[in-house]
Design brief:
Pfam families: Na_Ca_ex, YccF. GO terms for molecular function: calcium:proton antiporter activity. It is found in: Endomembrane system. Keywords: Antiport, Calcium, Calcium transport, Ion transport, Membrane, Phosphoprotein, Transmembrane, Transmembrane helix, Transport. By secondary structure, the protein is an alpha+beta fold. The chain is 51% helix and 11% strand. The chain has 26 helices and 19 strands. Strand 14 and strand 15 form a beta hairpin. It starts with 9 loop residues before the first helix and ends in a 7-residue tail after the last helix.
Amino acid sequence: MFLKKCSLTPVDVESLRRRSTADTPENSVDPEQHHWLPRRQCQHERVQHPELGAVETPSPEASAHHYCHYTPKCFLTVHRGGQGTNRSTPSRYGEEAWHEEATRTIIVENEVEAHREANNYKFGFRKWKAHVTEKPIEDRSDIIKELYSDLSVVKPQEGSVITFGNIMYVLLFGWWISLIYFLICPVMFLTIIGAAYGKLCFRLALYFIWPFGKSIEKAGEVVRRSIAKSPKCEVIPEESDSSGNKDSAPLLMPSPFPVEIPEPAAGKKSNHWCRVSTYVWLLLGYPVLVVIHSLACVLSWLLVFTIPVAKMNARTMTIVLLMAPEDVQVHKLEKTAVCEAEVILCCYRAFNVYYYKYSIQGINIIPLNLLPLVFITIIIGYTDRKHTFCSAETKFITAIISIIPLSYYIGMGIASISAQSNFAVGAVVNATFGSITEMTFYITALLQGHNAKTKCYEEIVKAALTGTLLGCILFVPGICMIIGGIKHREQRFNSRSAGVSSALLFISVGGVFAPTLFSKTFGDLVCESCTNVPGNSSVPFICRDCHYDTSTADPHLILSHIEPLVYTISVLLPAAYLIGLIFTLKTHSHIYDIHISDGHGGQDAQEGTSTTGDVTSGHLLVANTCINGRIVSNSHIATGHHVVHWSRTRALGVLIVATVLMACCADLSTENIQPILAHSSISLYFISVTVLAMVPELPEIVNGILFALQNNISLSLEVGSCIAVQVCMIQIPLLILFNAFYDVGFVLVFSDIHLWASIFSVILVNYIFMDGKCDYFQGTALVVVYLILLALYFFAPSPRSC
């Protein structure tokens, strides 16, 4: 959405450019004073900045206008930090200022969206790309408008209707829908009184085999009359006379030509509901077609990209098949010169690749379609304990997939509550539910292993923890750098803020793997399955499965040394995380250099002034200033020009329900993983570090990619870093705390492969983050290293306990 600027005098333009520094009380103007301004189209132009993308600036041609209506917008200005950078907004706009301070202006619609954007830059808050408020359809792009268009609207046909998607419609849906109509057609003719419906079935059979470029219309009694309609021509006004009066009537007015328009006769309604044939149709033909159209509707809806087919079938089932047969007419659009009837159905394309952006009540279509799978998985998983209907492998796969939409709902619930609440509430919600997805799986796995008296599940948890750490510091930033770098060539980010995350990563890895290094120092190397050649001392022993065993050297070593060390680390790591929060959100918030403007009044901008009030919120310097908009109270769900998708009460309810469902899916996945491990040749390490670790993080990966595509690589990197830091500094201490109260045998001692893979990854990512810029090559390096580590896990043998 573009920012519309008013046309100002040169003095006002210069004043407007300096409005960011004008925060004195004299410059404030009542926002209610500008609502009388007429709406005018304002010209603007885009300025491309090499680091931050396109930013809207007023064009010089706009100076011819005196007024411009300011629609409510909010501004979020991002200054890339650097040493000595002032926290105030730069005093001028243009390429020079961008190069000096790397300023980026993000336009948001309202205060709730401004809070969501601000929360994205707060350390420890979950990053969320999607809107939490409803965006007016008129403010969206033409591509998005097309997704929500009504199939009853006749639009100018562009291009040929013979496309790949339309041909796929015929192969997937058209032929068997048309076949059913052809089969019902003779049945209705045999009833004699239903012959009219037999003709309808024949017409619809021809329509559904290729519905594109055709329309289904509702015919009615039409009274034809002529009206005057002028063709497109130039109207030449008369010149003013000697008295100075000017006649506004044009000199040239073309003669009217007749255009036939429908005028339905008043007082006449269809009486087909009083006919016997209608009830014969409802008994013999309609139920079968409802089943067929419902099946096509569900299948095309689940395929996402064929949602137009679902809309077409739903409209046919609910409207067309319930009309009088003589009222249903099928026409080719190019031959319909005169509008003689109401258009019921008109479809041009069966396939649209952009339907992955389609949403209902703010919920994306993909997690919405996966929601039924969650309930099916839970119902079958807990009712079919003996695997009569589904195998254990199938239950495991469906349970893992079900975690994806639940993780999405949890993320949207957190973002909705945080955007509508103050900083304290948002921090509590993020701390409580931010790691709930992973913690639910880890705790259920440890309980499953404790009940089964096996250490295999403990190894699964450790491998999943390591896999999350590796994926978030290698794969997530790597794939974001690749996708963002292909589109934007080179992207820059705040190296100081990235340095904070890097330092916390070093602390995290050092603390988490300290007990492992301790056990290797004071433990004994124990090898099993050792063989040699009897009688030949020159041949050395061949040993397999060697590991460090602390209990062999000292039976009380774990109890007296390692366990206190683990408890000490579980206290130090959250303390370091808390210090990081204080550092980034309070004492050194300027290193992020985020400035949010949410201003009042178009007149402020017109006069070159702004109403600003600096409020430090976390590590963000917030000045809420909305142009010609009313500040939206957090206690109101709908105010002014926006509606929140989820209220705080609804979002909290979704979080609780999603958490319960997540616990059920995690329980089913851990319960049904054992047959896979027993009958699969794939290493347990590989399954844990890939499927179990990264599937719950898919919504976060998508958010990171979307940020990178918008040239906001800083947030993309923060997505992975925050998750990795939370794994080490929050999730692992919580697991230790849980084990202290309910002993499930969890010991914070990792395998060698986890130790060295994590240390190497942290060193590599810190090297990449040093210069504050990235491209697709650096992203490729991170992804390749991640794939190498995956290959290492793939060929590694499974743990002894499994």
